[in-house]
Amino acid sequence: MRHFLDSVARCRWALPALIAVGFAFVVACEYFPLLNDYSKIVLITVGINIILCSSLNLVNGYMGEFSVGHAGFMALGAYASALMTIKWLPASVFELPLGVLFGGTIAAAIGFLLALLSFKTRGDYLAIITLAFLMIVKSAIENINYVGGPRGMTPPVLTNLPWTFFWVVVTLWVIRNLIYSKFGRAITAIREDEIAANAMGVRIREAKILAFVTSSFFGGVAGALYAQVNFFIDPKSFDIVKSTEILVMVYLGGIASLGGSIIGAVIFTVLLQVLQPLGTWRMVILPLILVLLMLFRPRGIMGMRELTWFLPAGELFKRPKP
Amino acid sequence: MSALLEIDEVTKHFGGLCAISNCNVRIQAGSTHGIIGPNGAGKSTLFNLITGIYKPTRGDIRFRGESISGLRPGRIALKGIGRTFQSIRLLKTRTVLDNVRIAYDSQLHYSPLEAMLRLPRLGRDEEKSIEASLALLHPFGLADQAHDLAGDLPYGSQRKLEIARALALKPDILLLDEPAAGMNTGETADLVGFLRWVKDHFQVTLVLIEHHMHLVMSLCDRITVLDFGQTIAEGTPEEIRTNPRVIDAYLGGTEEE
Fold it and tell me: Is residue B42 part of a domain?
């Protein structure tokens, strides 16, 4: 059995095949009644959460900073894309792809500014800066009448399963490529020991900018997809609770692991749905799971390990230790 | 003749504490330069000033005649100043190979976009860097452990790996902060030969902070003695051995006698 699992893990065509089958399935769902609307919404939410979780993992897991501002990037992406789909490009063929790209770009631009701040400060202090950033974004949106202020906006429902699936694959592929490049090694070197990284000639600023910009870009993408699925967005949807949910997914699945981010996002989203009948009690059970996790498996389910499928061919000699 | 590395009238204050005051050191290209002094004399502070971890309060540090004080540590490392640390600073949860590879990465030139899209140049560059890193580890006797975690290596190998990692930057000058710390007499004797080999093989100028007098005296061409942040003597090992101020600093003042 172990041998079989091992050969599955080492199989190089399994992941591309799985992606192809998955894509065929989600496209089929659009044309045939394979899933009811509720299941579709749950799957889209799982997808959005995978994007959020893996992009936050880049900063919190791989780089070892503690950002609590991811919902802020999500808000920027959501509002930027909503402007696109409601006001600037309504009812065009490209409104969703352009809206998502625009949302990601706006979030990435602001993420760049946050990266500049991370040169000067880190750890707890940077966490407070990201918290302040989140508050600024929320109250800025609340006070701009053009985007509806506290009343929010009502973007059209455009996000569907194929688009979500597409963006999940793109997010994971790009982040994985970044991680297994010199930039990714620089990002993890910063987490391990910034002084040593300096002595190794690591371009610290470049690595920090890349981590923040990539992370916030995909945070914005997730926000854009989220905006076009719910019929309604308001500033309250992107508060510290939202950030906390993403953090829970990251630490549940495991830091510095893309496989972990997928597992964390799936478990969290599905549990939230399964525990629905418990009403308010689910907000007792979920944190309880988190407490137990931190006690018995502080690095999360997949912490610091990666699915062999995600390793590029050139890195396969690095078998993770059991 | 201008020296490879010039520390010119450098002063460093930490609040009210003066760690280094008006320090002058000239390090000639191709030499092995020892920096000795009692604990707290400011030796490690001097290394941290050279490598940009601290900025001098006053004074200037020049490398190849070009001022480097005020540059960020990463820039200084890339200009050709490698270093090791008194308390070993390896990336302990990365493999031995990765520790060297990350230092090699500064010589790879692919762009972030090429990395994110995994374009062909990346694959070629990565292959080259893995090969070069393994080739570097080989003479250090670390090639067999290349895929072990750096933190799992025995202490002596960790010291060697830290030196190998610094050499991956192809430095002109290598600063070693107490390379013999924690080694027994036999290991220290081996270290002399090892450091000579490093110097010849990699064509680097060595600067070492060390407490083992035997090692310093047998290895170094020139020695600078620091005490309370000031240079109290500089010269050949023979000159230092007989310098009365050095003997004072090490054996205590003569005023009690």
Answer: yes
